Automatic annotation (TrEMBL):
This is Renin receptor. InterPro entries: Renin_r_C, Renin_rcpt, RENR_N. GO terms for molecular function: signaling receptor activity. GO terms for biological process: positive regulation of Wnt signaling pathway. It comes from Cyprinus carpio carpio. It is a single-pass type I membrane protein. One of its GO terms (cellular component) is endoplasmic reticulum membrane.
């Protein structure tokens, strides 16, 4: 009876997790980037805006999500790393980290954030790495071309890396996973990419000293192939989940170590992406049923943060200048400090 009760309890917990759906988990964040405790859902299409806000960038539309508190005006993270894991709803991370439900998990990219980094820091050398090993999609910009020059990115290159010394095939306990199965090799290839990126970052710790923030975006689909091949109740899925959870935690620790705890690391877990049925667009003839009842404009402009800081500090500087000048004029001795009165006084004496 006890065994049956435990089995039913575990099944109930799994069902509850499935009800919660996909999730966004924050593995690491600096002290000045505060994520509130709560179960506030965030839409998948808003994840790029969230990444932009954590890096201190402005966004075109206000993100009405209470999970992210207002950050510091004088500090911004040195890097942001977002890992998308396809094939399951959630991973078994420690309970003391922030995790939020993910709604409307449509495919998204961080191209807008990468363009902002390139525009604002054109004179610097930021690291921008966007990689999806299973689909052999790669985009590198700035110092990434130098730092990750030797990173295996195609499936053929990664398979060759697995056969070398120090690969995950020899360092990780595979247990039920097989090196002769294509689905297992695809999953292990993506884990190998995580380990290789961590190793390259440890060799190039000077990246944290660059004034430009760095951006890392990885999409891992190997676990999705494990689910298709074996199912979610298989020992292969359990071992793959355990290996991936450990690899992601190690990756987050390494990124935080390189950037001296000035980096944000998020993990998005989605069972499957929902393809949008229609192309989302806005028209100037759109009805006012959505959003504001009176068709009001947005509260803030895209350049609001920039203009606000310019006006604020200019007013403070001018106020301080007026105070200092007024104080000096009030305490000035006309006969001693002013050259006009001094010359007039000397001329009277001569006459």
């Amino acid at each position: 009876n006890a065994v049956l009760f435990n089995h039913l309890f575990i099944k109930y917990i799994r069902q509850q997790n499935c009800v919660l759906g996909d999730s966004l988990t924050v593995l690491r964040s600096p002290p000045y980037v505060t994520f509130q405790d709560g179960q506030w859902p965030i839409s998948g299409e808003k994840v790029p805006d969230l990444v932009a806000l954590t890096m201190g960038f402005s966004i075109r539309e206000d993100l009405d999500w209470p999970g992210l508190a207002a950050g510091s005006l004088f500090q911004r993270p040195r890097a942001n790393a977002l890992i998308v894991v396809r094939g399951l709803d959630t991973l078994d991370f420690p309970k003391n980290i922030s995790s939020y439900p993910l709604e409307n998990p449509v495919p998204f990219t961080l191209d807008s954030v990468a363009n902002t980094v390139h525009t604002l820091f054109a004179d610097s050398t930021p690291v921008v790495l966007q990689l999806a090993p299973s689909e052999e999609r790669l985009y590198m910009m700035g110092m990434a071309n130098t730092v990750f020059e030797d990173l295996p990115v195609t499936l053929q290159q990664i398979r060759g890396r697995l056969s070398q010394d120090g690969s995950v095939l020899t360092s990780l306990p595979l247990i039920s996973l097989s090196r002769n199965n294509e689905a297992d090799l695809l999953f292990l290839s993506e884990v190998q990419v995580l380990y290789d990126i961590s190793a390259l970052l440890q060799k190039h710790k000077h990246l944290a000293k660059d004034p430009a923030p760095d951006l890392y975006s990885l999409e891992l689909a190997g676990l999705e192939e494990i689910v298709r091949r074996y199912g979610t109740d298989s020992p292969q899925f359990a071992d793959a989940t355990r290996i991936l959870t450990s690899a992601l935690q190690k990756f987050a620790d390494d990124v935080a170590n390189v950037y001296a705890n000035n980096a944000v690391v998020e993990v998005v877990t989605v069972k499957t992406f929902e393809a949008p049925l229609t192309r989302k667009s806005r028209s100037i003839l759109q009805t006012t049923n959505e959003g504001s009842l009176y068709n009001l404009a947005y509260k803030y402009d895209y350049d609001y943060a920039v203009v606000f800081n310019i006006v604020l500090w200019l007013m403070i500087v001018l106020a301080l200048a007026v105070i200092v000048i007024s104080y000096n004029l009030w305490n000035m001795d006309p006969g001693y400090d002013s050259i006009i009165y001094r010359m007039t006084n000397q001329k009277i004496r001569l006459d």
